[in-house]
Specification:
about 450 residues; mainly beta; Tachylectin-2, Chain A; Jelly Rolls; 2 domains; six-stranded mixed beta sheet; 1 helix; 31 strands; disordered N terminus; binds beta-L-arabinofuranose
């Protein structure tokens, strides 16, 4: 009996933790996440983001960043993400000012059998160091448990720690405080091994923060958010040495078109493709300090330049045809014929729907993996006050029709099933279009 209860609790917990997301962009939809540092450990991608929460009486400052802890998320395919829960909390770190709610952008790295989690926050002792300092918590596994060091790293004041370990084994810590700084780390990864230097020769005007350093071929890339105009955009500079001087090369991602003031990122290769992890305020369009992590593919030009990344909703990875396909994370939408809206504006964590406005709009969604085992039906969560007909094709507007779905009229959401007229094994682009002039809204589609 006890065993059964325990197993139910564990299953429930796994469900809770495991259900963090199966989304495109943003990749985490059950909470706000920002400042993502992504790392590959043992063939799996781990994302260590900040965790934005809403201010409440006695909980942080209204209108500002409110962050009390860190979660870690992991994925084997960049599509299905597991939330491993809280790894570090402000009130369990001995040196942190209680209730400062300033657990800002972190990083995590692996060395000699241990995982080192670096995080900036406000110390209790503000006499010896004003503003932010940076601490470390150490674990045997990427998901913790992480044990915080008793004191922050000596000689470091600032935010946004980033650790880079060079091929010769030398580790470097980078951080920001107006400028971007760097120093060598000792073998123990807990202390500086050299005096901090200001990294040159970066732009002198406009805030720079959030350094992320990586090496490709013989080039060190220093990437960073910079306010060149009104809000942050992602830029990069390169050098032949990890502590510079760096030469400014260009923009990785333009300013947010919708005005999210911050952006913060990391870049990593995974299974022969480079990815940019960054954030945007998708789940909080009216308040840009409640952000959400996104991923898009990143490409290098033959001369090593980074091609500018255009943010997408579709994001990366394949979507299993048997899972709920969120068409609102589309690859392309018919201009004027379809749009995206929140399912419930009072609870944006419910996600979005695609709204076909009655002028026979369409939506295209790339990378749906049908596999090889024949699928026979499609289920669509849909609503159409006057009824509607929706057509699903693969591989383009004139590709084969997979199904035609007749949506009965009604004001409620309903799950409507229809048989597939054909099955196409492999990976395809879906094209879903409204075939009537009546408005119709779709939450998701899935195949069985
Ligand atoms: O998330 C709080 C701060 O906003 C980060 O530390 C900065 O990089 C910016 O994203």
């Amino acid at each position: 009996m006890l065993r059964h209860k325990l197993s139910c609790i564990l299953t429930g917990l796994a469900g809770l933790l495991g259900s963090a997301a199966r989304a495109q962009n943003p990749i985490i939809t059950n909470q706000f996440t920002a400042d993502p540092t992504a790392r590959v450990f043992n063939g799996r991608v781990y994302v260590y983001p900040s965790h934005d929460i809403r201010a409440a009486p006695g909980r942080g400052r209204a209108g500002w960043f409110v962050m009390e802890d860190y979660h870690v998320f992991s994925s084997a395919n960049l599509t299905d993400w597991t939330d491993h829960g809280v790894i570090v909390t402000q009130n369990k770190v001995p040196w942190v000012k209680p209730d400062s709610y300033s657990m800002w952008a972190p990083d995590c790295t692996y060395r000699n059998g241990k995982y080192y989690f670096y995080f900036p926050t406000t110390p209790k002792d503000t006499t010896s160091s004003k503003g932010f300092t940076i601490g470390v918590a150490v674990a045997d596994k990427p998901t913790g448990p992480f044990v915080p060091q008793p004191l922050p790293i000596k000689g470091v004041r600032g935010i946004d720690p980033n650790v880079f370990i060079d091929q010769d084994g030398q580790a470097y810590l980078y951080w920001s405080q107006g400028n971007i700084y760097g120093a060598k780390l000792k073998e123990n990864m807990l202390e500086l091994a050299s005096e901090p230097v200001t990294l040159g020769e970066l732009p002198t005007q406009g805030l720079k923060e959030g350094p992320y350093v990586f090496k490709r071929n013989a080039t060190y890339y220093l990437t960073y958010p910079h306010v060149a105009n009104k809000t942050e955009r992602l830029e990069y500079a390169t050098s032949t040495s990890p502590l510079g001087p760096f030469k400014v090369q260009g923009v990785i991602m333009d300013e947010s078109p919708t005005g999210c003031w911050t952006n913060h990122h990391s870049i990593l290769p995974f299974k022969n493709q480079w990815y940019l992890f960054y954030h945007h305020n998708d789940l909080s369009p009216a308040f840009d300090k409640n952000r959400s992590v996104r991923i898009d593919s990143l490409f290098f030009e033959p001369d090593g330049a980074i091609r500018k990344v255009v943010p997408t909703l579709r994001g990366v990875g394949l979507t299993d045809a048997r899972q709920k396909i969120q068409l609102d994370r589309y690859s392309q939408l018919s201009p004027g014929g379809a749009s995206v809206a929140f399912l419930d504006t009072a609870n944006k964590f419910q996600g979005w729907k695609t709204v076909f406005n009655g002028s026979q709009g369409w939506v295209r969604y790339n990378g749906v993996a049908f596999g090889t085992k024949p699928l026979r039906t499609v289920t669509m969560r849909v609503t159409a006050a006057a009824g509607a007909t929706v057509q699903i094709r693969v591989d383009g507007a004139s590709g084969p029709v997979l199904a035609q779905v007749t949506v009965p009229k009604g004001s409620r959401w309903q799950e409507v099933k229809a048989p597939l007229s054909t099955f196409k094994p492999g990976t395809h682009t879906l094209v879903v279009s409204a075939k009537t002039t009546m408005p119709v809204e779709i939450d998701w589609v899935k195949f069985d």
